[in-house]
Amino acid sequence: MNTTQVIIGIVVLIALSGFYVISIFNKLVTLKNRYKNAFAQIEVQLKRRYDLIPNLVETAKGYLKHERETLESVISARNEASGSLARAAAAPGDAAAMTGLMGAENRLSGAMMSMKMVMEAYPDLKASQNMMQVSEELTSTENKVAFARQAFNDQVMAYNVFKQTFPPVFFATMFGHAQDATLLEFEDSATIQAAPKVSF
């Protein structure tokens, strides 16, 4: 083997290594953009949910005249969740933003559950056409939120797994991908929807 062949071999090896490092960078960017896009879908559905909640409260207001505190807690939790969503949308995958959104969503779910329990005592309200329509839209939207959240979490996992594998783990920090993205997990709906047990 002569010197020219050795130099050509070294140049080819450096070029291939360079292309491989570039491919790692591109894949990290692609995976990050995918989970950001997936979060945008959650944002759309949560905003729709937040827009429906005042309609639900307004419909219930006429029937629940003596339950003002319950209605106010729903609106307060909705406003808090809306603010947390705005912060999370600015930094999808960020641990603090996701934790804030998860906490706000869990409080909103708890307030909504309390309102549903109060509504059980008002059969006329449950039978109201407007209430049935708004409730149906809310249920549909919550299902869409669950699907969007699953898609987001799948993309976050793909991103985290790739950046933790060898050799991307050596380049992730250098390329600005030091922190893992955080999953978005709300309280288990079965826990939220479980009726309290009363014993006499």
From TrEMBL:
The chain crosses the membrane at residues 6-26. The keyword ATP-binding does not apply. Keywords: Membrane, Transmembrane, Transmembrane helix. The keyword Ribonucleoprotein does not apply. GO terms for cellular component: membrane. Coiled coil: none annotated. It comes from the Bacteria. It is a single-pass membrane protein. It is found in: Membrane. Its main location: membrane. Belongs to the LemA family. This is LemA family protein. It comes from Candidatus Accumulibacter meliphilus.
